[in-house]
Amino acid sequence: MKDAVSEAALLIKKARTCTAFTGAGISVESGIAPFRGEGGIWGKYDPKYLELSYFLAHPEESWVVIKKLFFDHFVQAEPNKAHKVLARLEAADLLQAIITQNIDNLHHRAGSKQVIEFHGNSRRLVCLECRYATDIRDDLWQSLPPRCPQCTAVLKPDFVFFGESIPSEAFSNSFVYAVKSDVMLVIGSTGEVYPAASVPEHARQSGAKIIEINPQPSEFTGRITDLFLQGKATEVLSALEKAIFT
Ligand code: APR
């Protein structure tokens, strides 16, 4: 592993454009359960609550699960070492952007600036009727489902549900960075969900070296990964940080 980490450190230092594509795995060591694999959310809860059609037809039932799974869960989580190393790489101009599938806001809270939220985020609620939008506020939780103060329609979290399209700016920015990347770190993702998983694929097709960090092989590993650093995100990124900065 030591040689692979040294090789990865060299690739990152030499890259003109280095990016990171992150999935739920990077937040596991912050106490946020992944969606799949060991302790995965979809092994305990029906994904239907995040299907737009089901949510619109059953807002009360869906909101009880959504608030428990995401909003209650996220407030206790803190950025971990892996989030912080990515923020340090960006501050040292060794990482130009993070494209994340995560909606937990931990990259921002770790200090990363150029964060593209491919699946939106959990900082805001929006009204699908009148486009009212608000940052999360405690008074919104007085009763579920939270309702729009302007038109009383049910408010929806500002993250992407199954059946919803990817925010167009996040989508296009992600592929602009994918094409520009000389190196892309792919951290903590099964690579099972599209179109997100096509971002590292596009980077690879455009000539990027893919450095994957994951305790388990993913859908990327045998197909597009050039360097597989097998391990937990905090451990591997700590080793990378040492190899790059000392
Ligand atoms: N460090 C790094 N990776 C880890 C760790 C860890 N400590 N623990 C688990 N992982 C890896 C798992 O091996 C797995 O590959 O994280 C990945 C988690 O997979 P998923 O839960 O499927 O996460 P992700 O690929 O981000 O899911 C994509 O699915 O439900 C949708 O919108 C949701 O954004 C999510 C998308």
UniProtKB/TrEMBL annotation:
**Is the keyword Metal-binding assigned to this protein?**
yes
Keyword annotations from UniProtKB, A to Z? Metal-binding, NAD, Transferase, Zinc
Provide the residue positions that the database annotates as binding Zn(2+).
C127, C130, C148, C151
Q: Which domain of life is it from?
A: Bacteria
Give the active-site positions.
H119 (proton acceptor)
What PROSITE patterns does the database record attribute to this sequence? SIRTUIN (PS50305)
Which InterPro entries does UniProt cross-reference here? DHS-like_NAD/FAD-binding_dom, NAD-dep_sirtuin_deacylases, Sirtuin, Sirtuin_cat_small_dom_sf, Ssirtuin_cat_dom
Q: What is its EC number?
A: 2.3.1.286
- The kind of enzyme this is, by top-level EC class, is transferase
Q: Which Gene Ontology terms cover its molecular function?
A: histone deacetylase activity, NAD-dependent; metal ion binding; NAD+ binding
Matching entries from Gene3D superfamilies are given as:
SIR2/SIRT2 'Small Domain, TPP-binding domain
Give the Deacetylase sirtuin-type domain ranges: 1-246
Q: Know the name of this protein?
A: protein acetyllysine N-acetyltransferase
Source species, please?
Caldithrix abyssi
